[in-house]
Design goal:
Blueprint: H1 2-6, H2 14-40, H3 47-58, H4 79-85, H5 93-118, H6 127-137, H7 139-146, H8 151-166, H9 170-183, H10 191-196, H11 202-217, H12 224-236, H13 246-253, H14 257-282, H15 286-303, H16 317-321, H17 333-343, H18 354-389, H19 401-405, H20 409-418
Helix pairs in contact: 2-6, 2-7, 4-9, 4-11, 5-6, 5-7, 5-8, 8-9, 9-11, 14-15, 14-18, 15-18, 17-18
């Protein structure tokens, strides 16, 4: 059966052509990212401080000893996260790093599958190789593996949380979110999605797991108090390096505080309006609401507080995948210009135009996140104003009539390739037997990242 799946044969439908073209490219890209780029590593090494801290914990030595006067990656995980991640130091550093990379690869691949299933696609659909290629070509996946960071596991936690939330498995959804927050608070804003849906049991695990793990780790770590007196204050600072948040780039370029706060508050208001419109008019469209609202919350979480790093953008894959939905907010070119800003692995540093290239490289992430939030606000606002002009607000629906009446061509193609990929229309000779052949990052540390 396996040989029949991989043996060479000529594609006979558009869907098959695309799949046959994309699968080899996607698979080879995955292999390159894992066994070449990730194994080679880079000058930025997120894994070494994590391994050293885990080893110190297992040997009863102080853990929170980072020198925050340097710009090298520091160990920043809280006590509960230290407890969970400590087993990585049981074996030698090189093999441990390889295992950690493979763990993140498996987590990303499982998240890829869950993302397909979230939008009713199968591995046999055209979407499968396209999504896999897009993920592993992105900066966020590539640098997560190259720097040996934990973001792949965080992405898996996000997809598990969304699936469990939609299935009303509230306690398990809370446990998954709580485990994620225990290591890194990246997904903490998603608890607001549970609150908006009235799934209050999620709070039990989301809050309980970090509290319990911290209580267990407290007496086991020699210098637990240093996390709260040294590391936490550092995390709350706005630094001008390794930071693509508005405040980080404002500090780097020397913007006045009044202008920085004006930009942040303006964007916060736009995010609040977008979330209100999503809740008011889309909360019953569950997949669309959860995927879109989570993306808006997380983008704001990266952009508006004091710290945001480019490879956090991995958590926006569910939002970007909504493009296959008829009422998606990212079916327009400005949205994908924004995506290029924070997802592209391209570097814009220029030997000929050094100042312009440096500004493009440092600001593209900030501008990308900002533009994405502006696009979502404008699309929602336009739909709301159009529905008010036409007197449709009382119906609780602000989608244009063409969205409500019939699916468009992309939706029909999605159904054909995802639900029954082999039943897609083909040439008149499609029923005849097929002939078979054979047997059945840039070297500048300013733009690198840390855990």
């Amino acid at each position: 059966m396996l040989l029949r799946q991989i043996e060479p044969r000529t594609a006979r439908t558009t869907a098959e052509v695309i799949k046959f073209a994309l699968w080899p490219i996607a698979v080879m890209t995955v292999l390159n990212r894992v066994f070449i780029k990730a194994v080679n590593g880079f000058v930025t090494d997120d894994y070494a401080p994590v391994y050293n801290a885990s080893k110190a914990f297992l040997n009863g030595l102080p853990v929170y000893t980072a020198n925050f006067d340097s710009v090298d990656p520091h160990y920043l995980y809280p006590p509960g996260g230290t407890l969970l991640i400590a087993p990585i130091a049981i074996i030698d550093p090189e093999k441990s790093r390889w295992c950690f990379i493979l763990l993140n690869v498996l987590a990303i691949l499982l998240a890829w599958y869950l993302l397909l299933r979230l939008f009713k696609y199968t591995v046999n659909s055209v979407a499968a190789p396209a999504l896999l290629l897009a993920m592993f070509m992105s900066e966020t996946v590539t640098n997560t593996l190259v720097f040996a960071n934990v973001n792949g596991c965080i992405l898996l936690a996000e997809l598990l949380f969304i699936h469990l939330l939609l299935k009303r498995r509230d306690l398990w959804a809370g446990v998954v979110l709580g485990l994620s927050i225990t290591v890194k608070p990246t997904l903490a804003p998603l608890i607001l999605i549970a609150a908006a849906r009235g799934q209050w049991k999620v709070f039990i695990g989301a809050i309980g797991v970090p509290v319990v793990t911290t209580a267990i780790a407290w007496p086991l770590i020699k210098d637990t108090d240093h996390f709260f007196t040294r590391t936490l204050p550092y995390l709350l600072e706005t630094r001008d390096y390794f930071n693509s948040a508005i405040a980080g780039n404002a500090a780097y370029y020397g913007l006045p505080d009044w202008l920085t706060w004006s930009i942040r508050l303006t964007m916060a208001v736009l995010v609040g309006i977008s979330l209100w419109l999503l809740y008011r008019y889309y909360r019953h469209d569950e997949v669309f609401f959860v995927a879109t609202s989570s993306g808006v919350l997380l983008t704001a979480w990266f952009l508006l507080p004091g710290l945001g790093q480019m490879y956090y953008s991995m958590m926006l894959f569910p939002l970007l995948m909504t493009v296959v939905l008829r009422n998606s907010l990212v079916r327009n070119w400005p949205a994908w210009l924004a995506v290029f800003g924070f997802m592209s692995y391209d570097k814009w540093l220029s030997d000929r135009w050094q100042g312009i290239g440096r500004n493009l490289e440092y600001l593209r992430i900030t501008f990308g996140w900002t533009l994405l939030l502006l696009v979502i606000f404008c699309v929602l606002g336009d739909r709301y104003l159009a529905a008010r002009r036409e007197g449709h607000l009382s119906t609780g629906i602000i989608d244009p009539a063409w969205m409500r009446d019939a699916p468009d061509s992309l939706d029909r193609e999605s159904a054909a390739t995802a639900v029954a990929p082999e039943a897609a229309p083909g040439p008149a000779v499609a029923d005849t037997p097929r002939p078979r052949n054979g047997t059945a990052p840039s070297s500048e540390k300013r733009i690198s990242v840390e855990p």
